[in-house]
UniProtKB/TrEMBL annotation:
Transmembrane segments: none annotated. Residues 61-154 form the Methyltransferase type domain. This is SAM-dependent methyltransferase. It holds the Pfam family Methyltransf_11. CDD domains: AdoMet_MTases. Keywords: Methyltransferase, Transferase. GO terms for molecular function: S-adenosylmethionine-dependent methyltransferase activity. SUPFAM superfamilies: S-adenosyl-L-methionine-dependent methyltransferases. InterPro entries: Methyltransf_11 (IPR013216), SAM-dependent_MTases_sf (IPR029063). The keyword DNA-binding does not apply.
Length: 234
């Protein structure tokens, strides 16, 4: 991993002539992602993020914390105990520089601290699952991290709308595999990361997987084709 996301976050924070990130997927064309988007304050966040932050309580784990904006709001404004977790070394360095008190660079599946009252996976949190094949593994990991009366907030988007329709109104999706399993490409400053697997989930599929793995689940908020779900232990 070249840590291009972390380098972009670092360059933006330290004003080192940052460029926009560029992203694309196996079903979408190249698109610019301004790095400033990762530094939004609460008022600039969307309704799903705000709802998750408003409902957070206790000891919080922010998975895929990026530049640390969610963590900082919960730590500084809500006065909660927050751990920011990201696999990007430079992102975690910036989290610490911005004032996140507990920021850890580690792979999510290797992280072992437990008993979190709230676990956040925001900005298409299901992406970390990579594919349907790995959902059970990640949900069981989440189950091991959350406290008995805790909660997990995770968001995603049903991307069925991105596929073409036939003249009868049917959607033309891949004949093999789930339509939300994509290859994700990230580019920055003339360099490219190796493609990674990224998963967008419709709510029904997430609901079935969550129930099968010992969770109760409810949809908390809907924003066009995106949603925020809350998972709790049965």
């Amino acid at each position: 991993m070249k840590d291009l996301m972390g380098r972009a976050i670092w360059d933006y924070y330290y004003d080192e002539n940052p460029e926009d990130l560029q992203t694309e997927t196996s079903i979408s064309e190249l698109d610019d992602l301004p790095v400033s988007y990762l530094f939004r304050d609460y008022q600039e966040m969307n309704a799903l993020e705000k709802k998750a932050l408003d409902l957070s309580f206790g000891k919080v784990l922010d998975v895929g914390s990026g530049a640390g904006s969610h963590s900082l709001y919960l730590q500084n404004e809500r006065k909660l105990e927050v751990t920011a977790l990201d696999i990007s070394p430079k992102s975690i360095e910036v989290c610490k520089a911005r004032g996140v008190k507990n920021a850890i660079c580690e792979d999510f599946l290797q992280f072992s601290e437990k008993n979190f009252d709230t676990v956040l996976l925001l900005m298409n949190g299901t992406g970390i699952f990579q594919s349907l094949e790995h959902i059970d593994q990640y949900l069981q990991k989440l189950k091991s991290l959350v406290a008995e009366n805790g909660q997990i907030f995770i968001d995603s988007t049903d991307i069925l709308y991105m596929y073409d329709q036939d003249e009868d109104g049917g959607v033309l999706v891949p004949a093999t595999g789930y339509y939300g399993e994509l290859d994700y490409y990230l580019h920055y400053n003339g360099e490219s990361e190796l493609p990674m697997k990224w998963l967008y989930l419709d709510f029904d599929t997430l609901e079935n997987a969550a129930i099968a793995n010992g969770f109760k689940i409810q949809k908390i908020e809907q924003l066009e084709d995106s949603y925020l779900a809350q998972l709790t232990l049965k």
